[in-house]
Design a protein that fits this description.
The active site is at residue 158. The chain has 305 residues and is of the alpha+beta class. Helix content is 37%, strand content 8%.
Length: 305
């Protein structure tokens, strides 16, 4: 072989090796795909599925919510996959804090409130969460789900399953103005009736909630019935900062292990607790038990008050 032909051959071999080095990894080294996602299946935390060429792990209970890195963040992208036998999922510990956002998906929210008023949007709730980042984000996965369920169970009771945006007894409307407050009732004597998921009422509560949230609710109380995020924020304000007629905030009642019953006391006190209205207490408990089951967790102890 001539020197010229040998050099040409060596050059061709070098080019081929360079191309091979630049090629991406083949499917032989890619992860094998899990069982394909099924819209009718129920998945709990740690369940593995494949979807659109990627493997995904469920972070908590989900149904009919396709794997995605957006939305509620229920699915964790495990990277691309090829064909092959399904891998075995590694369950997540219920004692490990949930790394991904609010532990209630939109599909679960829809199941909880199938007949809700269109005003109460899931996105409005998600938008409101930034105001109180510790809410449903403190403690173990179990505690986080319990708090989300407890909050929504009380909201369920206060609003007739998210049907009512405003208080239905209009005769009460003029009674919620405490004129002795130095700021009075600038929006009108009958302007501070119950609104929103926990039925915010009284001029002093609108003032306090508005001050905490950076919104002038004293002069603009109607924002609570016209802006879904504002409505949810007022409910979260009460839940996370107010003892009400109880001895602790509802948030602290759950995260510190005092139980669901203490959240009822913080909202309605002896009007329901201590024998005040056992049927109303049981109604809240029933909703809480349904919601914890839907979220794949346990209700815990001390349900009544």
């Amino acid at each position: 072989m001539s020197t010229k032909r040998l050099l040409a051959l060596l050059s061709a071999v070098a080019t081929a090796l360079t191309v091979l080095l630049l090629l991406p990894a083949t499917n032989a080294s890619a992860a094998v795909c899990a069982t394909p996602w099924n819209s009718s299946a129920v998945y709990t935390g740690g369940a593995a599925v494949s979807y659109n060429g990627h493997n995904w792990l469920a972070k908590w209970w989900t149904q009919n919510e396709p794997p995605s890195t957006g939305g509620s963040g229920v699915w964790s992208d495990q990277g691309g996959c090829g064909t092959g036998p399904s891998p075995t999922a590694t369950p997540t510990s219920t004692g490990t804090p949930n790394p991904g956002g609010f532990p209630v998906s939109q599909a679960q929210f829809n199941q909880m409130f199938p007949n809700r008023n269109a005003f109460y949007t899931y996105q409005g709730l998600i938008d409101a969460l930034a105001a109180y980042p510790a809410f449903a984000a403190t403690g173990s996965d179990t505690v986080r789900r319990q708090e989300a369920a407890a909050f929504l169970a009380n909201v369920n009771h206060e609003t007739g399953a998210l049907v009512y945006v405003v208080e239905q007894n209009t005769a009460n409307y003029p009674h919620y103005c405490d004129a002795s407050q130095p700021y009075g009732c600038p929006a009108g004597q009958a302007a501070y009736y119950g609104r929103g998921p926990i039925q915010l009422s009284w001029n002093f509560n609108y003032k306090a909630a508005g001050d905490a949230l950076g919104i002038d609710l004293l002069h603009n109380p109607n924002l609570v019935q016209t802006d879904p995020a504002v409505a949810w924020k007022t409910a979260l304000w009460y839940w996370n900062t107010q003892n009400g007629p109880g001895t602790m905030t509802p948030h602290n009642a759950i995260v510190n292990g005092y139980g669901f019953g203490e959240t009822i006391r913080s909202i309605n006190g002896t009007l329901e607790c201590n024998g005040g209205n056992p049927a109303q207490v049981q109604s809240r408990i029933d909703a809480y038990q349904r919601f914890t089951q839907l979220l794949g967790t346990v209700p815990g102890d001390h349900l009544g008050c």
